[in-house]
Design a protein that fits this description.
Helix 12 runs parallel beside helix 13. With 341 residues, the chain is an alpha/beta fold. It has two domains: 157 residues, Murein tetrapeptidase LD-carboxypeptidase, N-terminal domain (Rossmann fold), CATH 3.40.50; 173 residues, LD-carboxypeptidase A C-terminal domain-like (Glucose Oxidase, domain 1), CATH 3.50.30.60. Helix content is 33%, strand content 19%.
C-alpha cells in the first residue's frame, strides 16, 4: 500500500505548534512534499504546548478524525511527551476509538508507546520508531540515511521487510535552533546487534516501546492515575496475550539512572512477562548512556536463562531510527544480524 496522504497529530507534547520549532516544521513539510506526499496537520496539532497539555480531549479528537478520514493513509505523530495516557477516557469510555479504528499506518515512538498499546488493544497493527520532528525534520541537509531508508520503504510499500543494524550511531544534538540547520551530527561506528543470552534465532510478533512509558502502567510516581486507567481500560496485555510475543524495550532521553532502570525491568519481571515471551529486543540507549550497566541489569533481573535477549538495536531514542512493525510475525536471526517480517 503506497501512502499518498499523511495526517500529523500531537498526541503528547504540543511543541510542534511553537514558534521555536518553525524552522524544523518547514524543513519537514518540504521533505514530505518532495516525497510526493500530501500533508495535513490535524486541527489541534499546532495549538502549542499549553493548549495541548490542557486539552487531552482535543488530542483524542484529532486521532479519531484521522482514522475517520478515508483520504488519510498514514497517521504520523509529531513527537512524544509524557501524558498521552490522558486520552484513554476520550477514546475508550464509549468505544470511540473502536468505532473508527481501521487498519492504516500509525507511526510514533516514546510516550506514543501508550498509543501503540491502545491500538494493539483493538487489533490494529502499528509501526514503532520514528516521529515527524525527530526524523523528518532532522536539521542536517537531509534526513539521516538509515532513518530515511526505513521511512521511504514504509511510505512506498506500506510495510517493513527487514531490519539490519546501522553502520553508525549519532550523538544527540544539543542545539536545535535555526542556526543548527544544515549542520551534521557527530557520528560513531556502530557495532551491530549484541546477543546477551539465549538462542541466536527466535520468532514472534513484536510489541513494546519506551521502558519509561511502559513503567507508568505499573507505577504511579509520575501521575497518580496511570495504574488505575491502565487497569480500567485493559491497556497492558495479560500474560496470556503476551505468550510467544517478542518484547521490545528502549530507553528515553531522560537516561534513567541504573537503579531506576533496574526498578523498571524488575516491574516487568514481577508481572511475569519474561516467563511467557519468546525473546527481548533492546534499543541502544541515547548517547550510549549506561550502555554496560543496562546490559548487566537485564542479565541479572531476567531470571529466565533460556530467554534470548538482543541488545543495541537502532530504535527509539538512540539515533538513527529503524521502524519496527508491531503485530506482524518477526523472525530474528542474530547470525545474519537481521529481523525479517
Amino acid at each position: 500500500m503506497k501512502v499518498n496522504k499523511i495526517a500529523i497529530v500531537s498526541l503528547s507534547s504540543g511543541i510542534l505548534g511553537e514558534d521555536a520549532v518553525a524552522h524544523e516544521r518547514e524543513l519537514g513539510i518540504k521533505r514530505l512534499k518532495d516525497l510526493g506526499l500530501e500533508v495535513e496537520f490535524m486541527p489541534n496539532s499546532l495549538k502549542g504546548l499549553a493548549y495541548i497539555k490542557n486539552h487531552p480531549e482535543k488530542r483524542a479528537e484529532d486521532l479519531l478524525a484521522a482514522f475517520k478520514d478515508y483520504s488519510v493513509d498514514m497517521i504520523l505523530c509529531a513527537i512524544g511527551g509524557d501524558d498521552t495516557y490522558r486520552l484513554l477516557p476520550y477514546l475508550f469510555e464509549h468505544d470511540e476509538l473502536k468505532q473508527v479504528a481501521k487498519q492504516k499506518i500509525f507511526l510514533g515512538f516514546s510516550d506514543t508507546t501508550k498509543n501503540h498499546f491502545m491500538l494493539n488493544n483493538l487489533g490494529i497493527k502499528t509501526f514503532y520508531g520514528q516521529a515527524f520532528l525527530t526524523d523528518i525534520c532532522e536539521l542536517d541537509k537531509k534526513m539521516l540515511p538509515y532513518s530515511q531508508a526505513y521511512f521511504e520503504e514504509l511510505i512506498k510499500t506500506g510495510t517493513i521487510k527487514e531490519i539490519h543494524p546501522s553502520d553508525v550511531w549519532y550523538e544527540e544534538r544539543k542545539d536545535f535552533s535555526k542556526k543548527a540547520v544544515g549542520t551534521p551530527r557527530i557520528s560513531h561506528k556502530n557495532n551491530g546487534f549484541e546477543l546477551l543470552r539465549g538462542p541466536k534465532q527466535f520468532s514472534g510478533e513484536i510489541l513494546g516501546g519506551c521502558i519509561e512509558s511502559i513503567y507508568d502502567f505499573f507505577d504511579n510516581s509520575r501521575y497518580e492515575d496511570t495504574i488505575s486507567l491502565t487497569q480500567k481500560y485493559h491497556l497492558f496485555p495479560s500474560l496470556d496475550e503476551w505468550q510467544g510475543k517478542i518484547l521490545l524495550l528502549e530507553s528515553s532521553e531522560t537516561k534513567s539512572a541504573p537503579e531506576k532502570y533496574r526498578q523498571m525491568v524488575r516491574a516487568l519481571a514481577d508481572y511475569g512477562i519474561f516467563d511467557v515471551v519468546s525473546g527481548v529486543l533492546v534499543g541502544q540507549p541515547q548517547d550510549k548512556a549506561y550502555y554496560e550497566e543496562y546490559k548487566q541489569i537485564l542479565l541479572e533481573e531476567i531470571q529466565n536463562a533460556d530467554l534470548p535477549i538482543v541488545y543495541n538495536l537502532n530504535v527509539g531514542h538512540s539515533t538513527p531510527h529503524c521502524i519496527v512493525p508491531f503485530g506482524v510475525k518477526a523472525e530474528v536471526d542474530i547470525t545474519q544480524e537481521v529481523i525479517k517480517f
